[in-house]
Specification:
The structure is a single chain. With about 325 residues, this protein is of the alpha+beta class. It has three domains: about 60 residues, no CATH class; about 110 residues, no CATH class; about 110 residues, Dna Topoisomerase Vi A Subunit, Chain: A, domain 2 (3-Layer(aba) Sandwich). The strands form three sheets. A six-stranded antiparallel sheet has the order 2-1-6-5-4-3, with helices on one face. The longest helix is centred in the first third of the chain and has 17 residues.
Length: about 325
């Protein structure tokens, strides 16, 4: 396999056998330059799942090299696939029934921002709420169609994710349903994220073969603010908070560390995109961004602002850009 070294912009031939997980070998860049006793040390690792490589000795990062003609064919295939791909959507009535900030996350936002700022959040991101005070992050694409909604629970005082398991019953009002049309069984609720389409499937409102095709959270802002550049973060919460601190940009979120993918970036590939990786995730996102730029011609630039600013303690906590702005408010 030919690997493209993101550090020196050269390609190297590396034999990576089939298998799963990490593959360890000698680094094609630095091993031959080391002392004879160290030349056979396995300082290079290749992650078969993420398709990225790294040398722990010289610091080189690698992705698979793709020749220009193959890249062209891949792009054309990607365009054809995106045209023919069937995408399922959610009826807008569920979004309209859920709109509001009477969730625990909404309570946290109300403790920080004023009424005008809160109205902007609702208008721009169409936040929803459930009867157990979870927030619904509605994923709306640039055609203004609803892909689904992610349901998450937060601590109303700290704004942090909640991960415990409260007892729910119809009598105490703790029910995981989104509207009266969505699951209301009164059972113990785990605070793991779930999706609107999953809840609708449980009630046979959506067929079992309904499949989610994800987009970027906030992608629909391209319709409302076509002149704004895109700022990309990992979490929906971060995108929402940063949209108030830095309103001159369209703040979008991948919805997860490993969700920075070609499919999600493709609809916004022509935009100027600045990405802010959470602390401890910079190298992973940098390798992903460079690979995506190479493959689909996007223009993602990774900001190193947090890397330069963070203390050792902040790095260990894995803070994101919103944490820094909130600490200064």
């Amino acid at each position: 396999m030919e690997l493209y070294n993101l550090t020196d912009k050269k390609k190297y031939e590396v034999n990576i056998p089939s298998g799963i997980g990490e593959y360890y070998s000698t680094c094609p860049v630095c091993s031959h330059l080391r002392k004879p006793i160290n030349q056979k040390k396995r300082c290079f690792s290749w992650n078969r799942t993420k398709e990225v490589g790294h040398c722990y000795h010289c610091g080189s990062s690698f992705v698979e090299f793709i020749e220009s003609e193959k890249l062209k064919d891949k792009n054309e295939k990607h365009i054809n696939d995106s045209i023919t791909q069937h995408i399922n959507y959610i009826n807008p009535k569920y979004l309209n029934l859920s709109l509001g900030l009477d969730s625990n996350f909404g309570t946290f936002l109300k403790s920080i921002f004023n009424k005008d700022e809160l109205k902007t959040i609702i208008d721009d991101y169409q936040l929803g709420m459930t009867k157990d005070n979870s927030v619904i992050y509605w994923y709306i694409d640039k055609e203004n169609k609803i892909r689904s909604g992610k349901i998450m629970q937060y601590d109303p005082k700290t704004g942090k994710r909640r991960r415990d398991e409260p007892e729910c019953s119809p009598n105490n009002g703790c029910s995981p349903n989104i509207t009266d049309s969505i699951n209301s069984n009164g059972r113990t609720r785990r605070f793991a994220p779930t999706w609107v389409h999953s809840e609708l499937k449980k009630q046979n409102i959506l067929p079992n073969d309904w499949q989610l095709t994800q987009c970027l959270f906030g992608e629909h802002l391209l319709i409302k603010y076509p002149e704004k550049s895109v700022m990309l973060v990992e979490s929906e919460k971060t995108a929402i908070i940063m949209s108030l601190y830095q309103p001159s940009f369209n703040w979008m979120a991948t919805g997860g560390l490993n969700n920075l993918t070609e499919n999600k970036i493709y609809p916004v590939r022509k935009c100027e995109i600045t990405a802010f990786a959470d602390l401890k995730c910079f190298e992973l996102w940098q390798s992903k961004a460079e690979r995506i730029n190479l493959n689909i011609g996007s223009k993602i630039e990774l900001s190193n602002m947090l890397e330069e600013r963070a203390t050792k303690e902040e790095r260990e906590l894995g803070l994101d850009i919103a944490d820094f702005f909130l600490s200064e408010k």
